[in-house]
Amino acid sequence: MNIAGKVVVVTGASSGFGERIARKCAAQGASVVLAARSADTLDRLVSELGPQRALAVPTDVTSDEDVRRLVAATHERFGHADVLVNNAGFGILDRIADASFDDLHAMMDVNLYGAVRCANAFLPHMLARRSGQIINMASLAGFVATINMGFYSTTKFAIVGWSRTLMLELYGTGVRCALIAPGFALTNFMRRADINKYARVTQLATTTPDAVASAVVKAIQRGAHGEVILPWYGWLFTVASNMFPGLTRSMMRVVR
């Protein structure tokens, strides 16, 4: 399916996966609504993509008012949203015994509640049109636990569970839900997530921002309703973790 002419809303669009997703969607002929807190960065991206094709809406996904404004601005400019890409998120890594509850609260507010807040704002309009797609960005850390990622994984495991339920509830409505779960990738995410605290085993499943953006575009093209893990062999980690949890924990203690 050609995505030219579709209206794609991308949260966390100012950098990392979000920026690449927006660029690739625009290159395929889609109109993109760029949502992030950094107004200046969004404006620069709009100037590159072209104001006819891109709209910047400064948005903090933890704010109900901001998200309502995002929906209103999208509908005012383009009439509707075909796709919502819930990409906004961040991670702070530490051992659970040393981690800050405030960090968990902040990550939940953005990574999970922000995604739910945006989906709940756009879904009624999609359901009324019997057309649309929600794409939630999770992580391989939402399927497999590793050291130093307890709180971050908590937010991503929650995204996985919520997305799977959403997939079930949307059957027959004309609205679809896809879950994209990338492995380790070098992005601006590392500004807050200390790369030195990543377990070595996580770097066995490495992907790139371009690969993730391409996966999102393909999910839109196919009208995907399901899960995509990147790289493809990341599925091996999830299968091993589910079928052989004791063996997986032993391996994690060795490969750290």
Plain-language structure description:
The protein is of the alpha/beta class and 256 residues long. Helices cover 48% and strands 15% of the residues. The protein contains eight helices and seven strands. The protein has a seven-stranded parallel β-sheet, sandwiched between helices. Helix 2 (39-49) links the parallel strand 2 and strand 3 (54-58). Helix 1 (16-27) packs across helix 6.
Write the layout of secondary structure elements.
Elements: E1 7-11, H1 16-27, E2 31-36, H2 39-49, E3 54-58, H3 64-78, E4 83-86, H4 101-129, E5 132-137, H5 150-170, E6 175-182, H6 209-222, E7 226-230, H7 234-243, H8 245-254
Parallel strand pairs: 1-2, 1-4, 2-3, 4-5, 5-6, 6-7
Overall average residue pLDDT = 89
Q: Output the radius of gyration.
A: 18 Å
Q: Percent of residues in helical segments? A: 40-55%
Number of strands: 7
Shape call: globular
How are helices and strands ordered from N to C?
EHEHEHEHEHEHEHH
Structural class: alpha/beta
Distance between the termini: 42 Å
| Uncertain parts | none
Which percent band covers the strand fraction?
15-25%
Strand order of the largest sheet: 3-2-1-4-5-6-7
Major sheet size, sense and barrel closure: 7 strands, parallel
The helix count comes to: 8
Distinctive features:
alpha/beta, 7 strands, 15% strand, globular
Sum this structure up briefly:
The protein has 256 residues and is an alpha/beta fold. 48% of the residues lie in helices and 15% in strands.
